[in-house]
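Methods — Computational structure assignment.
A single polypeptide chain was analysed. Its primary sequence is given first, followed by the predicted tertiary structure written as C-alpha cells.
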Amino acid sequence: MEEKLRRIGADALQDLSSACTLEDLNDLRVKYLGKKGELTQVMRGMGALSAAERPLIGQIANEVRASIEKELATRTSALKKLAKELRLKDEGIDVTLPGSPVLRGGKHPLSIVTEEIQKFFLGLGYNIAEGPEIETDYYNFEALNLPKDHPARDMQDTFFISSDTLLRTQTSSVQVRTMEKTAPNLPVKVISPGKVYRRDDDATHSPMFSQVEGLAIDRRITFSDLKGTLDLFMREIFGPKTKTRFRPSYFPFTEPSAEVDISCVMCGGKGCRVCSHTGWLEILGSGMVHPRVLEVSGYNSEEVTGFAFGLGVERITMLKYGIDDLRILFENDLRFLRQF
C-alpha cells in the first residue's frame, strides 16, 4: 500500500504540473482527492491493515495528500495570474484613441415655448399657480358658471372618472382655486400652465395637450388692460410686427368675451394657404371675468374686476415653428427634436 500511495502522489504531481487550464486542475482534484478519487479509495482500505502498519501508512497518505493540495494551490495561483494577464492583453485600452461621443440632450419645443410664456408673464409681475389634473366637477365646470345642465358643457368632450371626478379640460380650475385662497386680497395676477385632457385626436388636436391660462383681478381693471397685455405678449412671442385683433365670442366664465387673432406668421397678413387667405390666425380666447365667477370665488363683483385668457401651448408652438401636424410633437422622433 505504501508503494501505491507514493505512485499516486508522483502521478498526481506530474499531471498537475502539465495542466494548462483551471478546468484541468479541477478535473485532477476530483480524480485524486474527490469522494471516488484514487487517494481516497486507498485511504478507505486502511481499515484492513494491522495496528502496527496503520500509523505508518496513515502518515504517508497525509504526506501525499498535503503534497497534492500544495501543488494544486500553486498551479491554481499561477494559472489565475496567467489568465488575468491574457485577459488584460486582450482587453487592453488604447488611451490615446478619441473617446466615444456623448450625445447631448435638448429641450423639447413645447418646453421652450412654455418657458418663453412664463418668462414674459413673470416679467409683468405674474405668479405661477398649479393645481390637480384630476379635478372635481365643481372646479372644472360649476365654479366657472357651467352648471350641470349648461349646454356649453358640450363644447368640451370630457374624460369622466366618476360622476363627480374627471380629467380637467382646462386650467381655469386653477384660477378658481387661486381666487378662493386669496379672496378678498388684491391684486391677483397668476398664470396656470399645465396639461389638460379632452376626447379629441387628429392632426390639430390631441387628447392630452398643454394650456396656459392667465388671470388678473384688481379694482379698476378694464378690457383695455386685457388688450394691451395680449398685444404685447403676441409681439414678444411672434415678433414686433405682429398685429392682433379681437372678435366678439362667447365663454361661460367671461363677459364680454373675445377670440384673439394675430396677423399670419407665414405671410405677414397678406393672405396664404395657412390663414385661408384671410391674413389672420386664431390664437386664443379671452374676456373679462364673469361677475358670477368672482362672487363664487369670494370677491365682490361690484368692487373688483378682472380679465382672463387661455392659450394652447401646442398651437403657439406650431405657429412659431411652422409645424403642420400636432402629432409630431409627441412622437419623440429625434430627427425632428434635434432641430431645436
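Note: The mean pLDDT is 88.
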